[in-house]
Design a protein that fits this description.
Shape: globular
Mean pLDDT: 92
Number of helices: 14
Strand content: under 5%
Distance between the termini: 61 Å
Number of strands: 4
Length: about 350
């Protein structure tokens, strides 16, 4: 028996695919600075590494994850949580560097991804780079009851080979749909003792990348899942509750990717506007840095300006008042309680 997924392209799926294509077209056509793209790629990696491990139970905060990925130590953190975070970066870099073009997805590639994800975590009890040889269960953490029993271990190699063959032979399905199917099916087979969710999300990303849907490595799909984990789990469970029809899951998957890509698109538009403002008003590098800060934050203060630019209070005041005079910023408050925001 070969793997044949069942699903329907609903109006919701068609609509979100259109949004994804528009975002992809924008990113390919937009003249975005290399520095901005590099900064956003680094930020996306931090967010993805943090959220994909957080979904699976890691207790690190986003600030801690950011410090760790920058090479700094964070006392008091769980060593396994730290290793999982650093492992994800290695696995992501492997995928993003290797799959810059269409290549077959092989058993060895999938096992390599798993090895990179779980190596040196909990004494290698997850058997890095190997399919499981024991039965496992998916347990509801609140009730401690099994909600799903994956296939027996003896069936795993065959089921995975069917999926791998389908991924390399399927040509008619939209790449985003294919990536969503790959993610669900790997979670459903649950081929590893641990790390299945992370592996599934990364292999889904791999499917997008090799089809040319890398979106400049700027999207963070796990952030969408982590914000509402119950919706994520319910979407996966919906397939089993609907006689293995993947439609509801694919609606959720496509909506999540479209949401993330729309955020990237809006940020890209702001960067283009900032570049136009910079050239029109001949802004200094310090002022550009402040404007970049205001892309992500509603206001900026004199002290924040000093910190992000490493300048004196007088220099910060002069720079900010220059932006006010040019009509770019609006000042509110008085004295040390004053703050600045972009003009409406």
């Amino acid at each position: 028996m070969t793997f044949q997924p069942r699903f329907t392209i609903t109006n919701s799926i068609a609509s979100t695919l259109t949004k994804i294509e528009r975002a992809r077209g924008f990113l390919e056509a937009a003249h975005l600075s290399r520095n901005w793209i590099k900064e956003m790629q680094n930020r996306a990696l931090i967010l993805e590494a943090h959220h994909t491990t957080h979904i699976e139970g890691a207790q690190l905060t986003l600030a801690q994850s950011e410090q760790l990925l920058s090479g700094k130590g964070v006392p008091g953190t769980d060593p396994d949580d730290v290793q999982e975070l650093l492992n994800y970066r290695k696995a992501f870099e492997f995928v993003s560097h290797y799959f810059t073009e269409w290549k077959p997805i092989t058993r060895d590639i999938i096992l390599k991804i798993h090895e990179l994800l779980v190596k040196r975590v909990r004494g290698d009890e997850a058997s890095p780079g190997n399919y499981r040889e024991k039965q496992n269960w998916i347990v509801d953490m609140k009730t401690n009851k099994a909600v799903y029993t994956p296939p027996p271990p003896k069936e795993v190699p065959g089921l995975m080979q069917e999926l791998i063959q389908w991924l390399d032979e399927e040509q008619d399905i939209h790449p985003v749909i294919l990536a969503g199917i790959a993610q669900f099916q790997l979670v459903h087979i649950h081929p590893f003792l641990d790390g299945n969710g992370r592996a599934a999300r990364l292999i889904s990303t791999l499917c997008l990348y090799r089809a040319g849907y890398d979106f400049k490595n700027l999207f963070t799909i796990s952030e969408y899942y982590d914000k509402n984990r119950s919706a994520y789990y319910n979407a996966i469970q919906s397939v089993r509750e609907n006689d293995m029809d993947m439609t509801d899951w694919l609606e959720y998957f496509c909506h999540g990717l479209a949401t993330q890509m729309q955020e990237v698109k809006e940020k890209g538009k702001k960067v283009i506007q900032l570049d136009l403002l910079s050239r029109k008003f001949n802004l200094s590098d310090r002022q550009k840095t402040a404007m970049g800060f205001l892309e992500e934050n509603p206001t900026i203060t004199n002290s924040i300006y000093q910190e992000i630019n490493d300048v004196s209070r007088n220099t910060a005041t002069n720079d900010l008042m220059d932006l006010v005079k040019k009509g770019i910023l609006h000042r509110s408050g008085t004295g040390r309680g004053s703050y600045y925001e972009l003009q409406k």
